[in-house]
What does this fold into?
Amino acid sequence: MIPTNFITTTTEKIIKWANANSLWPLTFGISCCAIEMMQTAASRYDLDRFGVVFRCSPRQADLLIVSGTVTKKMAPVLLETYNQMPNPKYVIAMGSCAINGGCFHESESVVQGCDKIIPVDVFVTGCPPHPEDLLEAIQKLREKIQRA
Ligand code: SF4
It folds into this structure.
């Protein structure tokens, strides 16, 4: 008789599953989109229920949510923060400013998209994006991690 109460998998699949289901973002709000990011973590949308728990140190984080306008003065800080995060690490660009400079894209003091500085996994459009858009982006990132 063949036992049926077991599953087969690989270590790689288990690690991907764990990474995808325990994303710990760094608090990196740099402009008004950060208010919506904070709202997503608060009680109404409750990111904790998805295993997404904000951290205050890049050393403890594996997700960087760039929520706001990246100025040229802030760009080196963004890069250094990203470099301090351990691998594997992921980036979500939240809002028009983080994607391409948004309404400030013609300003000489603004970087026209954080992907000019660090690699971005998921882009969330909007000015600002709704918390549900950020939730959807996190879901897309989880699927991307599991597919990789
Ligand atoms: S996209 Fe809109 S809400 Fe977000 S940081 Fe830029 S101006 Fe502010």
